[in-house]
């Protein structure tokens, strides 16, 4: 039995029954990493020694019969945007190449308290800006279904590691689609919870009004286990909501009969690959067979979502990234003659091209005389997008749409065309703008052998409904194949 291929749920069962040890599972995952990561390149940093120590402690707890819960002893990997005490955290940027944080981010603390075994830090687009992992300051990650293709981004290392069996589950972040789009491209489940559902304390900030932490795993059940562990209020993050956390895994019963699914017409229009559309519509039919009713809805302001995002996200990023000034963290050029020259040259050397583009766009959008025309106006459209979603949710329980307009694309294809790259997130961005929750579940494989995801969207703090509809779909779909790697 290849332990690295099993789910969190099944491995926990095996551990509880005493049929395997966390040591065996962890060794199996690290053997798999040694076998395939040269081709996938999902990891930036491996923490094998600490992982084996954590596994030994977990095995001791299982022996005594006082394990900590379903994540105890399970190998989980982290996007390199989560601060990890004593472990290099780069955000895939040269600016932070040698940064070793003095503390763990809250989601990391919660995983450790639940007994999870942290395997290492995963590659991503630099500062989470990108949709393909090609913007990593170090090297691109490859899609385990076909290593000539991108894994998606920015949590591309997270999605690829789970798909390839290099971790049992992973955490990512999603500002405009960065969990769901790579999950779709790699054939795994990825969830962006409601804004405020998970603490962002100790997560490197990109766009603070949009960023949210979420799980990637092989099944909806596994995502529900991870979310249950990391969700909830944190006094250290004032944007984390004081809303009770339901016991998501125990609420999955697959009963969705009579519930309504909205199909937004704007998400099934020009630009959507016909094969992706076919697979996503098949997923809708699967839910119909479970007794759900399909209702056409319209979200007309969605067409402005990408433009709105590319004002708001760069504006917030330009402000958040001001801290990388060569004084407190990261790269500093040694021979500057003035403070201004030191700032300029350190930042030019440390940041990659896309990050510099975003800083310039954001600084421009926020500058005196332009603020109302750009940022102010984007905020007004944001309100419209949010209201239209609210209105749709007064008629339906969830929305169903493609996660991305295409399957994964070949490495290099979109690097010279940022606008093309930005359009990868056309169906995911409105969710972040509205602050609602969404999940991507694999729904099929194209004739080229690449996976495709269907996206389900729920009202704020509707995660239990969202997960249950996703669970019902997964039951109806049946087991999804492993990547051929
Ligand atoms: N691809 C989008 C961007 O480049 C979204 C990234 C994200 O969600 N972090 O900004």
Tell me what you see in this structure:
The protein has helices spanning 8-16, 22-40, 48-64, 106-113, 156-164, 180-186, 220-230, 274-289, 305-320, 339-350, 353-366, 372-393, 418-422, 429-434, 463-477, and strands at residues 43-46, 75-79, 117-122, 169-174, 189-192, 212-217, 260-264, 293-297, 398-402, 437-445, 451-458. It is of the alpha/beta class and 485 residues long. It has an eleven-stranded mixed beta sheet with strand order 1-3-2-4-6-5-10-11-9-7-8, sandwiched between helices. The chain is globular. 58% of the residues are buried. The mean pLDDT is 97. Bound molecules: glutamine (GLN). Glutamine (GLN) binds next to loops.
The number of distinct structural domains comes to: 1
Distance between the termini: 17 Å
Strand order of the largest sheet: 1-3-2-4-6-5-10-11-9-7-8
Low-pLDDT residue intervals, each spanning 5 or more residues: none
Ligand inventory reads: glutamine
Residue-averaged pLDDT, rounded? 97
| CATH domain class | Alpha Beta
Write the layout of secondary structure elements.
Layout: H1 8-16, H2 22-40, E1 43-46, H3 48-64, E2 75-79, H4 106-113, E3 117-122, H5 156-164, E4 169-174, H6 180-186, E5 189-192, E6 212-217, H7 220-230, E7 260-264, H8 274-289, E8 293-297, H9 305-320, H10 339-350, H11 353-366, H12 372-393, E9 398-402, H13 418-422, H14 429-434, E10 437-445, E11 451-458, H15 463-477
Parallel strand pairs: 2-3, 2-4, 7-8, 7-9
Antiparallel strand pairs: 1-3, 4-6, 5-6, 5-10, 9-11, 10-11
Bound molecules: glutamine (GLN).
Glutamine binds at residues 128-131, 154, 174-178, 206, 313, 425.
């Amino acid at each position: 039995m290849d332990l690295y291929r099993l789910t969190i749920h099944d491995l926990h069962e095996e551990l509880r029954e005493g049929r395997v040890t966390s040591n065996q599972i962890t060794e199996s995952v690290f053997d798999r990493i040694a076998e395939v990561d040269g081709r996938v390149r999902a990891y930036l940093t491996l923490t094998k020694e600490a992982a084996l120590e954590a596994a030994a402690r977990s095995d001791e707890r299982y022996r005594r019969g006082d394990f900590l819960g379903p994540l105890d002893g399970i190998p989980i990997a982290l996007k390199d945007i989560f601060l990890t005490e004593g472990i290099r955290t780069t955000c895939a940027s040269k600016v932070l190449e040698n940064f070793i944080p003095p503390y763990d981010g809250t989601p990391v603390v919660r995983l450790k308290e639940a007994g999870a075994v942290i395997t290492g830090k995963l590659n991503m687009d630099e500062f989470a800006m990108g949709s393909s992992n090609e913007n990593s300051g170090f090297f691109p990650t490859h899609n385990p279904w076909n290593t000539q293709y991108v894994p998606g981004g920015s949590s591309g290392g997270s999605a690829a590691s789970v798909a390839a069996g290099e971790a049992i589950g992973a955490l990512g972040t999603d500002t405009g689609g960065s969990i769901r789009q790579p999950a779709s491209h790699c054939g795994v489940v990825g969830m962006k919870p409601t804004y405020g559902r998970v603490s962002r304390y100790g997560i490197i900030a990109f766009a603070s009004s949009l960023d949210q932490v979420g799980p990637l795993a092989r099944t909806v059940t596994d995502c529900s286990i991870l979310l249950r562990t990391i969700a909830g209020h944190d006094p250290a993050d004032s944007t984390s909501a004081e809303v009770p956390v339901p016991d998501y895994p125990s609420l999955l019963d697959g009963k969705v009969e009579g519930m309504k699914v909205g199909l937004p017409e704007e998400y099934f229009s020009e630009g959507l690959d016909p094969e992706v559309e076919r697979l996503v519509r098949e997923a809708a039919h699967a839910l119909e067979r479970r007794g759900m009713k399909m209702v056409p809805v319209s979200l007309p302001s969605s067409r402005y979502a990408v433009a709105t995002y590319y004002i708001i996200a760069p504006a917030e990023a330009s402000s958040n990234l001001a801290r990388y000034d060569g004084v407190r963290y990261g790269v500093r050029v040694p021979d500057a003659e003035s403070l201004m020259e030191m700032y300029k040259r350190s930042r030019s050397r440390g940041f990659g091209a896309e990050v510099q583009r975003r800083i310039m766009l954001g600084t421009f959008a926020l500058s005196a005389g332009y603020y109302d025309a750009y940022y102010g106006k984007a905020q007004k459209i944001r309100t419209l997008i949010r209201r239209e979603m609210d209105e749709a949710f007064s008629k339906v329980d969830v929305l169903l749409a493609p996660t991305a307009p295409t399957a994964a694309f070949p490495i290099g294809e979109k690097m010279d065309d940022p606008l093309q790259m930005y359009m990868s997130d056309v169906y995911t961005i409105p969710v972040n703008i509205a602050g609602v929750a969404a999940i991507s579940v694999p729904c099929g494989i194209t004739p080229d052998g690449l996976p495709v995801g269907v996206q389900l969207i729920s009202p704020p703090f509707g995660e239990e409904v969202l997960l249950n509809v996703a669970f019902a779909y997964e039951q109806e779909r049946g087991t999804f194949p492993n990547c051929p790697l």
